[in-house]
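Run log, item B.
One chain of 283 residues. Sequence copied directly from the ordering sheet:
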Amino acid sequence: MTTTTTTLPVLRSPLQRTIRLGLGRVRYEVRGYFRQGDSVFFTFLFPVVFLTIFSVAFSNFDFGKDAAGHAVSAARYYLPGMLAAGLLLTGTQNMAVEIAGERSDGTLKRLGGSPLPVFSYFIGKMGEVLVSALLQAALLLVVARLAFQVPLPAVASTWVTFGWVFLLGAATCAVLGVALSVLPRTGKSATAVVIPITLVLQFISGVYLQFSQLPVWLQNVAAVFPLKWLAQGMRSVFLPSGFSAIEQGGTWDLAGVALVTSIWLVVGLVLCRVTFRWIRRDS
């Protein structure tokens, strides 16, 4: 007498399937991103190029001294701003332009008619932002350290601060990019609509210009948006502690960094939920 054993298929819950499909799209999205030369230059390499330009052009400027009396180089001064700008470019700018293009060329319409859950699509996009932002930050740190001898933090708690500011900033910039993608009416107009917004934010948020030298009213406007706080959080990691005195409130105010950025993360998530469509309503 023989016994036949039947192997039943492993059933996956809808959530497991959604996550599995989303993680599968991360590789697809990342490969697609790095195959676009213009996007790679204007979002991924742009902060590295500007860090190099500023480090050379302003090498003789006096940016102050650290606690040991050593001069703070231009590369060290601009590194935090470039890290913050990188999050804005790879997250908000790239996501907005990319998704607007996919909506315009019919990619989103085809995905909307497929079994792919919308949450899986977003996992793929968020994964793209996280991977590209991590690689970009690593490249910036390597260039700053090896090419310009920028001292990196030696205290573990400082790297913890860098970690949560980076991750919170990446998530916030990504969801705001998805929300912003609804503004361009066509893929061709996406860069004309999105880039001016991100460029203005960079100039008023202490990325290219010393924040304390801006008019007070402009500082207050910048303080409404997350980029100013991300740049401030990054400065707390890479600049001497004495530089906190020239911040808007005279301190690094990391609690404010967390609060304002988290508020924008929630706002971005709500806007994504309300505005995202596979096709435009007026199509």
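Observations after the first pass:
- Residues 14-275 form one domain.
- DSSP finds ten helices and no strands in the chain.
Flagged for discussion on Thursday.
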